[in-house]
Design brief:
Phage major capsid protein E; 7-stranded mixed sheet; 5-stranded mixed sheet; 14 strands; globular
Length: 339
């Protein structure tokens, strides 16, 4: 015979939390600030010039030497790619669960969009190797003169400063750093090996409660560091216990060929930015639905026509194949906020 407690439990109702929650989400921190520019065409062309020569001094009755500017050839052209996914929802589910806490379409749509964003931020660094020219990632669009390849040597503060100084647009101001968790730990360790405390600053970000919240963010020389778990993602989810380990220091662990990349760039038009078709206005996603022949189910196709583009070559730089420094010195906390 059931106890009173068992009867009470059977008669009670569980409260269903809203949405379908990811157990192992990827961090794509730059997504909240990365700008997208609408493009009224099938491609965006940037025409650039070589190094400008300073003007010349002239004396009395001296002619002025012609210096008509000519564009570089060829121009840089960036075309769209399309990222896609689909899901299905039965009419019956929409009808009988319409009063439930979750809307069947909205839940699936939110996760579909997240999947498209994950793919975008994978392509952001690596590019699309399957469809040549459709989504050139950072590795392809960065100018060779803006690449510092450490060859799996430990990261240093001097190298970080050199990488940041390679971004010259906007007079070198407004630069951001972009890397994965291993890169962040390498930046920390580069300070610790010199006995220095990494610097942080307060920034405002949206939080799950639909409010803005102040967060402490790692910076280098005033530039904030954004983390993307999908950079150099060798093991799938960073929380996947069955995934392969990412060796943080290949020199020590005997796994050559695995280093971390730290990107530096200036965001915005004529610098580094995303691009979307102008017809989408401010949107990033396209949704279409079709009905199965038997009329039982709606199939939703969700796409993201997008790409990235680079204006000035000096808007983007990278430190490649860095590893985490191994030795630490006693910390010295230089707090200059009150200076």
């Amino acid at each position: 015979m059931s106890t009173i407690g068992d009867n009470a439990r059977l008669l009670s109702n569980d409260v269903q939390a809203k949405w379908l929650i990811e157990d192992f989400p990827f961090r794509i921190q730059l997504a909240s600030v990365f700008p997208f520019c609408p493009v009224a065409g099938d491609a965006l062309r940037y025409t650039t010039t070589p190094i400008l020569q300073p003007g010349v001094m002239i004396g009395f009755e001296e002619g002025i030497v012609e210096d008509t500017k000519m564009p570089n050839d060829p121009s840089r052209v960036f075309t769209f790619a399309e990222i896609a996914t689909q899901f299905r929802v039965a009419y019956k589910a929409q009808d009988i669960f319409s009063s439930n806490v979750n809307d069947q379409v909205s839940v699936q749509m939110a996760l579909a969009i997240r999947e498209l964003l994950y793919k975008f931020w994978i392509l952001f660094e690596s590019g699309d190797s399957a469809n040549a020219g459709e989504f050139d990632g950072l590795h392809k669009i960065v100018d060779p003169s803006r690449v510092l390849d450490l060859g799996f040597q430990p990261l240093t503060l001097e190298t970080l400063e050199q990488g940041k100084e390679l971004v010259r647009t906007n007079d070198g101001r407004g630069t951001v750093l972009f890397t994965n968790s291993i890169g962040k730990r390498a930046i920390h360790a580069a300070h610790w090996t010199r006995g220095l405390t990494p610097q942080y600053t307060d920034m405002i970000f949206p939080c799950p409660r639909n409010e803005n919240q102040m967060e402490r963010v790692l910076t280098f020389d005033g530039a904030p560091v954004y983390i993307n778990d999908l950079n150099q993602n060798f093991s799938g989810s960073p929380d996947n216990p069955s995934g392969e380990l990412v060796h943080e220091n290949p020199q020590i662990l005997g796994s050559p060929g695995v280093g971390v990349n730290i990107w530096f760039f200036s965001l915005g038009e004529n610098n580094l930015h995303g691009m979307t078709p102008a017809a989408l206005d401010t949107g990033l996603f396209v949704t279409r639905s079709t009905m199965l022949p038997d009329g039982s189910t709606l199939v939703y196709h969700v796409t993201m026509p997008a790409s990235i583009a680079l204006g000035s070559a000096s808007s983007l730089a990278v430190i490649k194949n860095a590893v985490i420094p191994a030795h630490r010195s006693p910390l010295i906390d230089f707090d200059i906020r009150g200076a």
